[in-house]
Specification:
The chain has 414 residues and is an alpha/beta fold. It has 2 domains: 203 residues, 3-Layer(aba) Sandwich (D-Maltodextrin-Binding Protein, domain 2); 200 residues, Periplasmic binding protein-like II (D-Maltodextrin-Binding Protein, domain 2). It is built from 16 helices and 11 strands. The strands form 3 sheets. Strands 2-1-3-11-6 form a 5-stranded mixed β-sheet. Strands 8-9-7-10 form a 4-stranded mixed β-sheet. A two-stranded antiparallel sheet has the order 4-5. α7 packs across α8 and α15 packs antiparallel against α16. The termini are far apart. The chain binds alpha-D-glucopyranose (GLC).
Length: 414
């Protein structure tokens, strides 16, 4: 009987789906206002395609858990979900594994999207996903407590260390992908990089050590960053800033409309958004994040799947996304649109400049493994289990070994 149970469940779920109407499945995240927004947009898509239903498969908020779930589905050669919301760092991995379809046969208008996002979705000369929205890491600050955001990282830590409430600079410090993006912004702020232009690991160089020391000391020495962040993701940081306990926050743009809503936010009308500051000699850096839409290579209905993607990345849906969910368009031309200018928390020209300068994470099929190595060692340094120099040294050794094992080191190129 036990052996029959999975089959029975499968049969029941098949019965639950009316066989007449074809259904497309879309796997997405639902952080902040994304869930309600995508539901509303899908209803419009269905209205324009009578007889077609789109089923939403919502997925975990946390990037690495979502990645695992997708790998699980795709590795099992499931034909669903038809359309997948990919993090900007996953496309090379999924493309190299043959899990997603090259989109060239649909003749996508790649030139209409942000070049860095198109590049991140291109593998071996073919485009595998279309950019849905762009994320950039930004500094949230309290306009009722200061006339302007801090000019550099040292001032940020000094102001954050002042007693409160509100007090402290909160960010995503749990051992997961978010920590890598926060580190990347501090790293750029000190003039460092993860890989150089030739694809060689340089994350153990002096600027990286100084960036990690700054992050560690701002927690344990200056007490500018609460140690709680070491288990926090995006939403934890947002709640702390929103309830008025934190003075500064690093987060993606999705937080803007939520923080602006007086029904749930104590800081509505009292916060601003600015580029992350840098240290002297470094560069103000935003990590390039965001989501892409790709087609499962085993989908039974790739044409319909592409029609759905085209609809979701069309200007009208992107403008609505910026208005409702605060997420930045991946089409540069939209930054000239009046509706976008009204929707963004900072002048659209500035937003576009930040987006265009945003720093991508390495585009390689082994990105997830590279990132896991970095996550472990960054977190060890931040929790004082290792010195930053030693932690980054070990991370670099492991990262180089991984790249050479996979044939993707320096000359292997990507
Ligand atoms: C956001 C970004 C994504 C990043 C993740 C880290 O979802 O869009 O690119 O990897 O946060 O938590």
């Amino acid at each position: 009987m036990r052996g029959l149970l999975p089959l029975l469940l499968l049969a029941l779920s098949a019965c639950a789906r009316p066989s007449a109407a074809p259904a497309l499945t879309l796997a997405t995240s639902a952080v902040g206002r994304e869930g309600a927004l995508v539901q509303a947009q899908l209803a419009r898509f269905e209205a324009a395609h009578p007889g077609l239903r789109v089923e939403l498969r919502s997925t975990p908020d946390e990037a690495d858990t979502r990645h695992q779930l997708f790998v699980h589905w795709l590795n099992a050669h499931a034909s669903e979900p038809d359309v997948l919301q990919l993090d900007v760092i996953w496309t090379p991995e999924f493309a190299a594994a043959g899990w997603i379809l090259p989109l060239d046969r649909f003749e996508p208008e790649a030139g209409a999207f942000l070049p860095a996002a198109v590049e991140a979705n291109t593998w071996r000369g073919q485009l595998f996903a279309l950019p849905w929205f762009v994320d950039v890491g930004m500094l949230y600050w309290r306009t009722d407590l200061a006339a302007r955001p801090p000019d550099d990282l040292a001032t940020l830590a000094a102001e954050a260390a002042q007693p409160g409430p509100p007090s402290g600079f909160v960010w995503q410090g749990a051992r997961y992908e978010g920590l890598v993006t926060v580190f990347l912004e501090h790293l750029g702020g000190f003039g460092g990089r993860i890989l150089d232009d030739g694809g060689r690991v340089v994350v153990d160089r002096e600027p990286a050590v100084r960036a990690l020391e700054y992050m560690r000391d701002s927690i344990h020495v200056q007490r500018a960053v609460p140690a709680d962040v070491l288990s926090w993701q995006e939403e934890h940081a947002r709640f702390a800033f929103q309830n008025g306990s934190a003075r500064f926050m690093r987060n993606w743009p999705y937080a803007v409309p939520l923080l602006s809503d007086p029904a749930q936010s104590k800081v509505a009308g009292r916060f601003g958004v600015a580029p992350m500051p840098a240290a002297p000699g470094g560069t103000s850096t935003a990590a390039l994040g965001g989501s892409q839409l790709a087609i499962n290579a085993r989908s039974d209905q790739p044409e319909l799947a592409y029609a759905l993607i085209q609809f979701l990345v069309a200007p009208a849906q992107m403008i609505e996304r910026a208005q409702v969910a605060g997420q930045y368009p991946s089409r540069p031309s939209l930054y000239d649109d009046a509706a976008i200018r009204a929707a963004l928390a900072i002048p659209a020209v500035e937003a576009r400049a930040i987006v265009e300068r945003a720093v991508a994470r390495p585009a390689t099929p082994v990105y997830s493994e590279l990132s896991s190595i970095l996550q472990v060692h960054l977190h060890r340094a931040l929790t004082r289990q290792a010195e930053p120099r030693a932690a980054l040294g070990t991370a670099a050794v492991e990262m180089r070994a991984l790249l050479s094992r996979s044939g993707l080191d320096a000359e292997g190129g990507w």
